[in-house]
């Protein structure tokens, strides 16, 4: 993967287009952690980094708060959250009905604009 | 998961020959995992196509875009904004994804860029083996977890045919006979009585598109009597 | 009139009405805003007669068990204690102030109408339940790692905002800690604050909940909703 700088324009475009959804999700999330058990990765490991809320707050939430202005390293961290820690099975449960998979998918969209995605030939298994 | 293989480049070049603005749509699901149609493969295909057309007088413009799942319309909405300036689409998803894409944009020609091969397992990076043909009537319970539909050339349900060559299939000495393997494994598990019962062959006639509602969600889609 | 009396006069008079107006207008406005973000689905139904649900006794029983299995995967099944505490907390949060005798006396004096009231010991118990639930949530926030990693200072502030009116109301009623007037003033101000905050802060989940769970189709929706979010604005 080329070590390029982050091109914020396409990320900001995604953030702008989906502003209402992201804003509402971040606003409504009561940080209650009740979504944890709905993630099979959390169930298997009990590691809070797999909590659906943690994943969307620290991916699309972070991008939104920084308006897409993140370093390549930080973007790579987001990539790891939305691909390694989440398989987008879309089975997470939110007591308020926040569509967490949709928010994770937006973070993936943002990563894809920077040519950051999971490369299954280099990282085929969970790492 | 679903395993697919990129189509030969010449075949793809033939499809897109009359079109100028071509959108190549990748899929972040199964075809990414089997290295056939993810974002990386979209980029590779664009490079290949541009190289193949370098000396021709073509004005073809390629654009790549990868959605998370082409088999779920919610993810396809992202493409809407490019649809207007697209003359044709090349889908790198499995057959299901290609069809949903074609259904969403009925006025735009959608071509497959991969051949969907199988539901299979990952033997190694880039090495896959078919394991399931989604027949809809799983028989693995009494065949020791070895699928006779996929693994037996004749798809037999009641023991091997007469063409068995030792423990190999008659179509090639490279291919093991599925029923020999079933027998050996059942014997090791002390379950040989399982293959003594006569099983009806699979009803392959009149196959129509399957559509089903998952258990627990009937009320949403079905009438109750 | 002392300075304190003047402030008390303002916070228990006009500001109460302003707070109520902001609360009601905020809820109506936000509900309207959310309802403009949803669209009705095309009904997807499989009408094949062979595929209708058979309502045989055995199948009905199996279906019930399946539903119970599904419920087990929701927070009722995975965190029964927390769910119970949360439900009790939220119920008490509403019924305690609405059916409090002191509030209803004021309501009667102001508009001539009032709601039925709990007896004072009952209100005291309900208030204490809210306070203990609040303490439970606070401890959970601070001690459990899974909650801590998503906790911000704002979450703790909001929790304090919620329990503060109950705390001060309880102390004022029992003439504890500070003098009555000062305590009741704090009580009124914090109560007004929470009313104003509900439509615009994280307390907004009070409105969103009904949309997210009752109107929008998802795996865990309650009832049979037929709508989807339509967040993106058409350019």
The tally of strands of chain A reads 0
Order of helices and strands of chain A: HHHHHH
CATH evolutionary superfamily of the largest domain in chain B: Response regulator
Distance between the termini of chain B: 37 Å
Number of helices of chain A: 6
Q: Roughly what fraction of the amino acids of chain B lie in strands?
A: 15-25%
Shape of chain A: globular
Helix and strand string of chain B, N-terminal first? Answer: EHEHHEHHEHEEEHEEHH
- In the predicted model, the low-confidence regions of chain B spanning at least 5 consecutive residues are none
Please report the total strand number of chain B as a whole number.
Answer: 9
User: Helix count of chain B?
Assistant: 9
What is shown here, in short?
The complex is a heterotrimer of chains A (127), B (225) and C (235). Chain B has helices spanning 9-16, 30-33, 39-52, 73-76, 80-83, 95-104, 148-151, 178-188, 218-221, and strands at 2-6, 21-27, 61-67, 88-91, 110-112, 114-124, 127-132, 168-169, 172-176.
């Amino acid at each position: 993967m080329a070590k390029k700088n982050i091109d914020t324009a396409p990320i900001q475009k995604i953030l702008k287009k989906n502003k209402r959804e992201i804003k509402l999700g971040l606003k409504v999330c009561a940080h209650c952690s009740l979504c944890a058990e709905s993630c099979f990765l959390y169930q298997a490991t009990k590691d809070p980094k797999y909590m659906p809320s943690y994943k969307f707050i620290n991916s699309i939430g972070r991008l939104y708060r920084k308006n897409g202005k993140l370093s390549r390293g930080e973007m790579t961290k987001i990539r790891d959250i939305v691909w390694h820690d989440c398989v987008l099975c879309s089975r997470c449960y939110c007591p308020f009905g926040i569509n967490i998979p949709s928010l994770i998918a937006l973070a993936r969209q943002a990563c894809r604009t920077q040519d950051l995605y999971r490369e299954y030939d280099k990282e085929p298994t969970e790492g | 998961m679903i395993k697919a293989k990129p189509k030969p480049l010449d075949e793809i070049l033939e499809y897109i020959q009359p079109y100028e603005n071509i959108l190549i749509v990748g899929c972040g699901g199964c075809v990414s995992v089997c290295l056939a149609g993810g974002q990386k493969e979209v980029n590779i295909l664009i490079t290949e196509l541009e190289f193949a057309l370098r000396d021709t007088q073509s004005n073809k413009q390629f654009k790549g875009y990868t959605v998370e799942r082409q088999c779920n319309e919610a993810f396809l909405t992202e493409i809407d904004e490019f649809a207007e300036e697209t003359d044709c689409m090349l889908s790198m998803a499995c057959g299901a994804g290609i069809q949903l894409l074609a259904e969403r944009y009925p006025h735009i020609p959608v071509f497959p860029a991969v051949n969907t091969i199988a539901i299979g397992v990952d033997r190694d990076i880039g090495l896959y083996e078919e394991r399931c043909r989604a027949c809809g009537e799983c028989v693995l319970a009494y065949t020791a977890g070895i699928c006779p539909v996929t693994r037996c050339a004749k798809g037999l349900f009641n023991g091997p045919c007469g063409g068995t060559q030792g423990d190999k299939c008659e179509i090639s000495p490279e291919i093991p006979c599925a029923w020999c393997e079933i027998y050996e494994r059942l014997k090791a598990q002390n379950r040989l009585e399982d293959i003594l019962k006569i099983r009806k062959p699979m009803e392959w006639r009149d196959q129509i598109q399957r559509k089903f509602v998952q258990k627990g969600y009937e009320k949403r889609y079905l009438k109750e009597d | 009139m002392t300075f304190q009396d003047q402030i008390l006069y303002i916070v228990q008079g006009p500001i109460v009405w302003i707070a109520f107006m902001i609360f009601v207008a905020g809820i109506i406005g936000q509900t309207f805003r959310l309802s403009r973000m949803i669209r009705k689905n095309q009904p997807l139904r499989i009408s094949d007669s062979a595929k209708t649900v058979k309502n045989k006794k055995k199948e009905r029983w199996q279906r019930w068990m399946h539903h119970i299995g599904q419920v087990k995967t929701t927070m009722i099944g995975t965190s029964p204690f927390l769910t119970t505490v949360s439900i009790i907390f939220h119920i008490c949060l509403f019924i305690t102030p609405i059916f409090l005798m002191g509030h209803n006396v004021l309501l009667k004096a102001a508009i001539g109408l009032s709601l039925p009231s709990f007896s004072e010991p009952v209100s005291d118990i309900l208030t204490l339940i809210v306070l203990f639930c609040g303490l439970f949530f606070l401890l959970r926030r601070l001690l459990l790692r899974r909650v801590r990693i998503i906790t911000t200072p704002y979450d703790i502030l909001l929790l304090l905002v919620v329990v503060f009116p109950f705390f001060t109301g309880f102390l004022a009623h029992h003439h504890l800690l500070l003098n009555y007037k000062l305590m009741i003033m704090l009580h009124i101000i914090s109560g007004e604050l929470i009313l104003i905050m509900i439509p615009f802060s994280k307390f907004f989940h009070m409105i969103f909940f009904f949309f997210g769970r009752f109107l929008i189709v998802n795996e865990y929706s309650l009832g049979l909703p037929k709508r989807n979010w339509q967040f993106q604005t058409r350019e």
